[in-house]
Each structure stands twice: as C-alpha cells, then as structure tokens.
Amino acid sequence: MASVTRRSSSRANRRATADAKILEATERLLASGASFTELGVQRITAEAGVVRSTFYLHFRDKNELLLRLIEPLADGAFDLISSTTIDMGLEGIVAVMIQDIRYYRERRHLLAAVLEVAGYDAVVREFWNSQIQRFTDLAEVWLRAEQEAGRTARDLEPATAARVLTWGGFQVLANHVLSGPESQDETVAREIAQLEWYGAFRRPAQA
C-alpha cells in the first residue's frame, strides 16, 4: 500500500513547483517590460509552461499573484534602513541610501507593478501602504529619541515629520528609479540623505 505521507509530500512538492513557475514567469515578463495590468493570465501560464486551470488552483486572481510577488519587495530595503544609525553620520546615511536606490533599481519591474496597481486597487494599495508604514514607524522612533536627547528641535512633531520624511523620500526614490538615469543614483541618494540630516534631524550645516 502506498504511503499517504509520501503522496501528500509529492502533491505539496508539485504545488510548490507550480507556484514557483508562475511567479518566476510573471517576474520575467515584467522585467522584459510588460505592464502588469495588460499582462493576461494566458500569457503568464504560457510563459510558465502550465495550463490556465493550474493558475487558478494556486491564485485567486492576478492581484493575489502580485501580492505574492511584492511581499518580500520592501523587506530588503527595510533591512538596509533599519541597520542605519544616526551615529553613522551624514556620509554613512548617504552610503545606505545609495544601497537602497540600487536595491530598488534591481527590482524596478516589481516596483513599477505595485505602484501601477496600487493606483486603482484598494487591496494592493492598502498592502503597500502597510509596507511603507514600517519605515514611517521606524523614522518616528529615531526622531523621538533624537528629540528626547536634545539633539533636534523641541517643536518637531515626530509622527508628522516621520510621514513627511518617509513618503517624501520614497516618492523621490521611486520616481528616480523608474525614470531617472542610473548615473544620477549617488547624487539623488546624497540629496535625500542631506534633506534628512539637515532637515528632520536638524544637524547644523558644515561651513
């Protein structure tokens, strides 16, 4: 008699393989310049080498597929930013920001897809906003600590400043990654870092 455990393991492996094929195929198509909105399930399944019905066994619809694709997108950037400390100084923050821009540039097709769909789909927008909120919460913790230590302005409102800092910086970063030249990455990184350093953190400008 065949092992039930072995059969279950085999089904799980096939499911994981099909999942991976569909996700990888979608990412290849996006990286080649396809718009996620215009990308049909038929084209995705043809690229993945699976039948259309297999897609719907694994994903409710295309937006669920997108959520699976972008779930880890912000994680790498958050790891970079959360490793930053004020003690690194301006040049240290510039270096991290350069890494951040390069991280997103390598994944610009995923960034383009999530911003495209977030513009009209509430679920995707809510998910992406929750990802950005992690950065906002972290910035607020930093600003409160700086304020309590007397190193930044007493009249600074940390929660509001954190939102401005995070969303403003991200909008500039995203616009640059999606439409700006790679040769300007370091310049843009420095400008964002300086706005944070001299603006939100109120560090005095050097002569």
From TrEMBL:
Keywords: DNA-binding, Transcription, Transcription regulation. Residues 40-59 bind DNA. Transmembrane segments: none annotated. GO terms for molecular function: DNA-binding transcription factor activity; transcription cis-regulatory region binding. Residues 16-77 form the HTH tetR-type domain. PROSITE patterns: HTH_TETR_2. SUPFAM superfamilies: Homeodomain-like (SSF46689), Tetracyclin repressor-like, C-terminal domain (SSF48498). It comes from the Bacteria. It holds the Pfam family TetR_N. This is TetR/AcrR family transcriptional regulator. It comes from Micromonospora musae.
